[in-house]
């Protein structure tokens, strides 16, 4: 057998990287290519049209049940996971992963499950640790791992995290990636896929549209935590996967960095709500002090003045914290 399924994941900075990647793919590629780019839910995507102008291979947007075809680039549409299943691509409204649908990890895991050593995984520019868990599954099943050089990527988070947690086979600039894939596709490989773990099978089942499939195994295969899911506020279970993976009981999946980032966003929203409350308290205390003075209740007015000043001081501290500039080095640290 030879490697004939190429799965590609990207996020921030991914359009530029994907254009360069597709431009380098040989016109006679004897493998199917499937691409997931993290994108906002809803609406439409012009990615397939953009990539069609970038290289020699035909590029199509995935529809449910589309057969995998050699020499073609299949692009995941927004709002649906793209899952490899029995030689075709299925679209699923399964639970979001790291807040994304489509998600790189979903595509990678499903490819690892059904194709084993025939898979080549490619991670390009993106933030946080998306793609790491999926690439680990590909390697466990005997597939090949290719990563864009972090210094070549507009956003190095995804490549860096894969390199830290997965034994990668090749690290190259994206301009060289397409030609490298062409050479790797031609290699013969032993049909010796690694074992399918219960966790991998469960996570692929959860990502599909099969009602209830795999969900009962989430608490059985994992360890309960005191963490909550940012998507649904349900309890998170820690799964025994490389680098740490979390799932809630309805299936939302999170990696550690994505979970921390989501908590940061929730904290900022809470702080803005607190600032709004303080501003409203300031305004109300001022109105009540004025009303008390008009009624000749000076002592009451002074108490409201004190509350206004306390709220103003607290709001000033909170506003300064929210609006202060953050240096890039601090953010990356």
From TrEMBL:
Enzyme Commission number: 3.1.1.61
Domain CheB-type methylesterase per the UniProt entry, residue ranges: 1-188
Family matches, as SUPFAM superfamilies: Methylesterase CheB, C-terminal domain
Entry keywords, A to Z: Chemotaxis, Hydrolase
InterPro entries, per database record: CheB_C (IPR035909), Chemotax_prot-Glu_Me-esterase (IPR011247), Sig_transdc_resp-reg_Me-estase (IPR000673)
Entry superkingdom: Bacteria
Reactions listed under catalytic activity: [protein]-L-glutamate 5-O-methyl ester + H2O = L-glutamyl-[protein] + methanol + H(+)
Class of this enzyme: hydrolase
Active site: 11, 38, 130
One matching Pfam family: CheB_methylest
Listed PANTHER family: PROTEIN-GLUTAMATE METHYLESTERASE/PROTEIN-GLUTAMINE GLUTAMINASE (PTHR42872), PROTEIN-GLUTAMATE METHYLESTERASE_PROTEIN-GLUTAMINE GLUTAMINASE (PTHR42872:SF6)
Protein name per Swiss-Prot or TrEMBL: protein-glutamate methylesterase
Organism (species): Lentzea pudingi
